[in-house]
Amino acid sequence: MKVTIEGKNIELTDAIKGYVNEKLDKLSKHYDNIIKGHEVKVKLSVAKNPRIPDKNTTEVTIFLDGKIIRSEQSSEDMYASIDLVSNKLDRQIQKYKAKHYSSYQHGERPKLGTDLTGQLPSEKIKKGASRLGKIIKTKRFKLHPMTPEEAVDHLDLIGHDFYVFINSETKKINTLYQRKDGEYGLIEPILD
To answer: How many domains, in total, are found in the chain?
Structure first.
């Protein structure tokens, strides 16, 4: 496992780096056959705004073969946010393992999308003086063909509330989203 730790508005001390590595090592030992040899990016940041109660944010992205597992947690304390992320990642990797290996037990090889090492869209619109706000960040990423069912798996692993992909059945760009009732919705374009 190759771990990269970045910091924003925080001094990356040996103690905090050691704590991050300790938590990731525990995950690695528990899921060695899944995580071994993969890239892990950790971003630690502290918000400067005094109105934000949970200023310390930890974001971890694990790049697996064709899948991305991502978790982001915030709290009043950086160590607590690292703990929260570690716990959430443990649950996400368990879910990934259950889906991935259950298909092998039934004699099927899971259909994985192609390499997805690019960042997924997480454009955030910040409310400004106007009612519409403005776009403050743009992310670019590769789209990969997959079925809507595979897109559901990717959405579950990254922890976002939507996922953009090329539908391998229709060859069109689709957006999958998580509904408030826990189910999923699929947005398909109609081209004239």
So the answer is: 2
Q: What is the DSSP letter of 42?
A: E
Judge whether 82 lies within some domain.
yes
Helix (H) / strand (E) element for 156: namely helix 148-158
Q: Give the pLDDT mean for 130-158.
A: 82
Q: Do residue 62 and residue 141 come from a single domain? A: no
List the one residue out of 178, 137, 183 whose CA is nearest residue 158. Answer: 178
Lowest mean pLDDT among 26-30, 42-46, 101-105: 101-105
Residue 74 DSSP symbol: E
Domain that holds residue 179: 125-187
Whats the size of the chain, residue-wise? Answer: 192
CATH code where residue 43 lies: 3.30.160.100
- What gap in Å lies between CA 178 and CA 28, rounded to an integer? 29
Task: Please report, in angstroms and rounded to a whole number, the separation of the first and last CA atoms in the chain.
Answer: 48
Query: Cα separation of 116 and 146, whole Å?
Result: 12
